Amino acid sequence: MKRPTRAAIPLLLAVLSLPAPAVQEGENLNLSLPECIQKTLNNNLGLAAEVLTPQIAEAAVALAGEKFIPSLALSYSRQDNISASYSFLDAAGAAVSTLQNDYSSQFSQVLPTGGTLSMSLIGYKSDTTRQFQTINPRFGSTLRFNFSQPLLKDFGWKMSRREFILARNNRDMSEYNLSETMEEYVYRAKSAYWNLVYSRENLNVRRQSLKLARELLEKNKAEIEAGTLPPIEILTAQADVSTREADILEAEAMVRNSEDLLKTLMNLEAENPRAVSLHIIPTDSPSVSKPDVDLDRALREAYENRPDLQAARVGMETSRFNLSYARNQTAPDLRLQASLWSPGISGTQIIYENNNALSGKIIGVVPAGGGQALKDAMDFRYKNWSLGLSLNIPLSTVFSRAFVAQADLALEQAQLRMKNQEQQIFLDIRTAVRAVETNYLRIQAYRVARENAAKKLEAEEEKLKVGLSTNYFILQYQRDLANALTMELKAVVDYNVSLAGLYRAQGKGLEMERVPLPGESGGPAER
Predict the structure, then answer these.
(1) What residues contact residue 365 under an 8 Å CB cut-off, 6+ apart?
(2) Cα 524 from Cα 516, distance rounded (Å)
(3) DSSP label of 132
(4) From CA 509, how far away is CA 511, in angstroms rounded?
(5) Which of 148-162, 226-240, 399-413 has the highest mean pLDDT?
């Protein structure tokens, strides 16, 4: 499986770090396609929310990795116990008093093999009024090493790192999902930009058509006044002028709608509160060059680059790992346990007459502190050790295989989804390639239609000059030319949008755009 390059994240962060092009103070905003894409990646709120998902997943990976960071535990307690004395063996007085101080420190480490290793130092101080004590107060210290290692269930590098592996896979999937989201927003930005180009050019065509109709109307008025044209002829020209004025209203509404869509996509108000009143002027022209499209190459690039397919591969890897973990959990819990410890004891020694504590007659004391107890423990003066095996066989793992069956079905489901995703990619690429090729042929066809419409109008105007045509035919050919221009423009825009759709289907939409990185004056953004 191809490992994620995480290229989408640095590229997006690089784009976000760039200063956005300044909004002009006037009513118009000149905007290139790269600037449009940059503003979308900078400001779009939906994308900004998606950027946080990989960061959250990265934090989860760090949290899972903390399992292997050693832990340190400290404790301290103090007890003062007083109880009644019912025997001369307890105390000389009416009560027995014991003051106990306990302290401990433990250093623990989870091992990559699934086991645990710990080192602890335990100490105490006991001071009592009980009779016949030979050391009082008494100090004790114990240095202990404990080792526990599973040999079947939970054994191994992968089993011990399960949380980390799952968190890492989730992070990779979130990065691929972010890349897919970025591809989608790049496509939306390009589509909205080219549709704004079309709506503005369509408005210009409609205005030019209205200009021609008004010029013909003025010409008719002059001829009617001169008596060379019957008054009835002016009605046709007036009606056509009104129709074309209505077309302009519709074209102007299309421009405003396209601008609003692009402003929302770029979240332009984040840069300028007056963005709602700005008119966006696209500065880039759509391409009409012949496409270099190869179906096999496009499919190969899609299988290599599509973020959703990469995410599906990571999901299948997770399912495989979950199945291996489920099988491991059905094994008995056999553990090797070993301990090594060293106690030490010291304190004030009480000397009795004839070395007989039962006499109760103290003839002297030898004061001492807790240092000797700690030294004896650290020097392993009294070595102790234990070694053993423990076996735990839960009956659920013997009579039930539901966990394994569930993981096995999840893997089968992931494999089916993977195959379905590959089929969908094949369909997307074929559809996108066909759209690019078809739209390019449409451009050629509509260009010929527009050229023929222009020639027909020119010829009809020549016939009108010598009285062999009428206003009706002139107006009809003007409309034909305007419609041919509009259809050619639409084909050009559709071709560029279909190119953007092909790049998105291949998973290389962002790669194909010239978004400058820090330290560059321009050029294609590198993944």
Answers:
(1) 348, 349, 350, 351
(2) 7
(3) T
(4) 5
(5) 148-162
How far is 249 from 412, CA to CA, in rounded Å? 57
DSSP 192-228: HHHHHHHHHHHHHHHHHHHHHHHHHHHHHHHHHHHTS
Q: Assign 321 to helix, strand or coil.
A: helix
DSSP three-state, residue 307: helix
Give the up-direction half-sphere exposure of residue 50: CA atoms within 13 A in the CB hemisphere: 23
* Bigger pLDDT: 463 vs 261: 261
- Reading phi first (left if > 0) and then psi (alpha if -120 to 50, else beta), residue 229 is in beta
Q: Identify the band that residue 23 occupies on the pLDDT scale cut at 50, 70 and 90.
A: very low
Quickly tell me which residue has 């560029």 as its tokens: 496
- Strand intervals (E) in 290-383: 333-352, 362-366
Size (the chain), residues: 527
Which tens digits make up the pLDDT trace of 221-274? 887 887 777 787 788 788 888 988 998 999 999 999 999 999 999 988 887 777
- DSSP designation for 231: T
Residues in contact with 462: Cβ distance below 8 Å, sequence separation at least 6, in sequence order: none
Which of helix, strand or coil describes residue 395? helix
The whole-number average pLDDT for the span 449-476 is: 83
For residue 457, the cross-strand partners are none
**Percent of all residues in the chain with a pLDDT value above 90, rounded to a whole number:** 52
pLDDT digits over 362-380, tens only?
787 888 888 899 999 999 9
What is the distance, to the nearest Å, from the Cα of residue 395 to the centroid of all Cα atoms in its chain?
A: 42
Mean pLDDT of all residues belonging to the chain:
85
Residue with tokens 């010409």: 219
What contacts 24+ positions apart, CB below 8 Å, involve 111-114? Answer: 111/149, 111/160, 112/68, 112/157, 112/160, 112/161, 113/149, 113/155, 113/156, 113/157, 113/160, 114/149, 114/150, 114/154, 114/155, 114/156, 114/159, 114/160
pLDDT of 24 over the 60 cut: no
Asked whether the beta carbons of 23 and 502 are under 8 A apart, the reply is no
Please give the average per-residue pLDDT across 449-464, as a whole number: 88
